[in-house]
Amino acid sequence: MDKLLIQGGQPLHGEIRISGAKNSALPILASTLLADGKVSVGNLPHLHDVTTMIELLGHMGVELMIDERMSVEVDSTTINNLTAPYELVKTMRASILVLGPMVAHFGEAHVSLPGGCAIGTRPVNLHLQGLEQMGAEIQVDSGYIHAYAPQRLKGAHIFLDTVTVTGTENLMMAAALADGVTILENAAREPEVVDLADCLNAMGADVRGQGTATIEIHGVERLNPCHYDVLPDRVETGTYLTAAAATKGHVLLKDTREDILEAVLIKLREAGAEVNTGADWIELNMHGQRPRAVNLRTAPYPAFPTDMQAQFVAMNAVADGTGSVTETVFENRFMHVQELIRMGADIGLEGNTAIVRGVDRLTAAPVMATDLRASASLVIAGLVAEGETMVDRIYHIDRGYECIEEKLQLLGATIRRMPS
Ligand code: UD1
Question: Which residues carry this modification: 2-(S-cysteinyl)pyruvic acid O-phosphothioketal (predicted)?
Answer without folding.
Answer: 117
